[in-house]
User: Fold this.
Amino acid sequence: MKSSFSQIINSETPVLVDFFATWCGPCKTLGPILDQVKEELGDAIKIVKIDVDKNQPLAAKYQVKGVPTMILYKEGKQVWRQSGVVQKEQLKQIITTNT
Assistant:
């Protein structure tokens, strides 16, 4: 069974949501960075990728205007948000500072 978005972001584990599009160049750059962050932080973070073209109502609800847009949730509350590519070390620092 597929979890709802609100169930996912209300998890006790912090959740980084990556709103992306398959045609977006910067999104392709961000993918491997997110993989490395997940590898290094392990179970301390959940990373969820949302394709804005396949999930337009969700992207609209969260006012995602550009891709990539990352939103960090802690227990369902948005604690950080940024559009564009963020480098690995900066992203790790943001996650550890806000969670």
